[in-house]
Amino acid sequence: MSVISTIAQPLRTLWFAQGQRTQGKLHVRDAIDIKRTMSLVWLCLMPAALFGMFNLGWQAQATLTEGAASPALWQLGVFNQLTGGLTPDTGVIGLFFYGASFFLPIYLTALLVNLAWELVFAKSRGEALHEGFFVTATLFTLVLPATMPLWLVAMGISFGVVVGKEIFGGLGCNFLNPALAGLAFLYFAYPEQTAGVGVWTAVDGHSGATALTALLSDKDAFDNTLWYQVFSDAAWWDAFLGFIPGAIGETSTLAILIGGGILLLTRLASWRIVAGVLLGTVATATLFNAIGSANNPLFQMPWTWHLVTGGFALGMMFMATDPVTASYTDKGKWAYGGLIGAMAVMIRVVNPGQPEGMMLAILFANLWAPLFDYFVAQSNIKRRLKRHAL
């Protein structure tokens, strides 16, 4: 198989069915394959990606309104030539293309580097190239700040694909989510570029904080606030809709839930994992609310705020439900999801130096997923042996 045909295969099969058909007597015939699965997941990520591009422009325009200087960044060369630059009067379409000026370079870098590594390993193993690199590159792009240097994008996706996936056998054999593995590498190796204060708004020389960081410094943010009272808070609705600084595709909980809901309806994502994450979050957040703290306002943070801040929603709907790295058994999925929800809240609250806990919680749960399945299988074996012994 030539290099050109190896690259062209997943692109061609996105639009055309395979020419080969199974023959003989079969027990199962199913139209769902890797191509359709990855294509649908990619499409479900588009609401978050499209809103993220608009929000990048909207946040930048807001800083200009506050008196910030007009940005002079290399990503905006084409945008400035076509529109004359970002102004307080730039419309919705202009704001969208402003954000696309940052999103597309990062996405194309992640996609091409990911494709290059997939091609290397596919050729070395004599295997076909699968469409999974589309989803991995998209997820990795959505969890990055818009100001991430492209060389760091290449390094992060390389680490995630090679170390988190390919060295364990490739698609279906990895035990860590490759997009999160790449993000974790950047998070600890280059913290200023990945989670620094000034990386979340795509303008030149502007400093701003994410919602989690801002809430951490506000000791009066949740005084006597109950979980159901946040629905009358305009700031909570801004966070739910996505009009807050943050990573490219993590800000709009609504857009993420739309795409994630389609995954649940098509059963490509497990509702048990999502429900387990929610239950773990509610239980742990409620426990911290009851304990309280005079110095750490996140102890009083209701679970409803955890849901709409940071990468919680994207992690719950798209990362935690990754069928390769999650538990396979039904009971194991409940335990796996519950562990993620509990760990995410615990990391956010107990370790305020790292207020974003969803990434670390999912990677930690990835390590426990096989153990959950093992314990469930052993329990079933013991129960059946006991039943037959009677």
From TrEMBL:
**Domain of life per record:** Bacteria
FMN phosphoryl threonine occurs at T210
Q: Which Pfam families match?
A: NQR2_RnfD_RnfE (PF03116)
E.C. numbers: 7.2.1.1
How is it placed in the membrane, per its record? Multi-pass membrane protein
**Where are the membrane-spanning stretches?**
39-58, 95-121, 133-161, 167-190, 236-266, 273-291, 303-321, 333-351, 357-377
The reactions it catalyses are: a ubiquinone + n Na(+)(in) + NADH + H(+) = a ubiquinol + n Na(+)(out) + NAD(+)
Per UniProt, the enzyme's principal EC class comes to translocase
Compartment(s) where it occurs, according to its Swiss-Prot or TrEMBL record: Cell membrane
Q: Which cofactor does it need?
A: FMN
Matching entries from InterPro entries are given as:
NqrB, NqrB/RnfD
Q: Which UniProt keywords apply?
A: Cell inner membrane, Cell membrane, Flavoprotein, FMN, Ion transport, Membrane, NAD, Phosphoprotein, Sodium, Sodium transport, Translocase, Transmembrane, Transmembrane helix, Transport, Ubiquinone
Which PANTHER family does the record match to this protein? ELECTRON TRANSPORT COMPLEX PROTEIN RNFD, NA(+)-TRANSLOCATING NADH-QUINONE REDUCTASE SUBUNIT B
Function (record text): NQR complex catalyzes the reduction of ubiquinone-1 to ubiquinol by two successive reactions, coupled with the transport of Na(+) ions from the cytoplasm to the periplasm. NqrA to NqrE are probably involved in the second step, the conversion of ubisemiquinone to ubiquinol.
What the record says about family reads:
Belongs to the NqrB/RnfD family.
Quaternary arrangement and interactors, per the entry?
A: Composed of six subunits; NqrA, NqrB, NqrC, NqrD, NqrE and NqrF.
- Write down what this protein is called: Na(+)-translocating NADH-quinone reductase subunit B
Source organism of the structure: Ferrimonas pelagia
Biological classification of the source:
Bacteria, Pseudomonadati, Pseudomonadota, Gammaproteobacteria, Alteromonadales
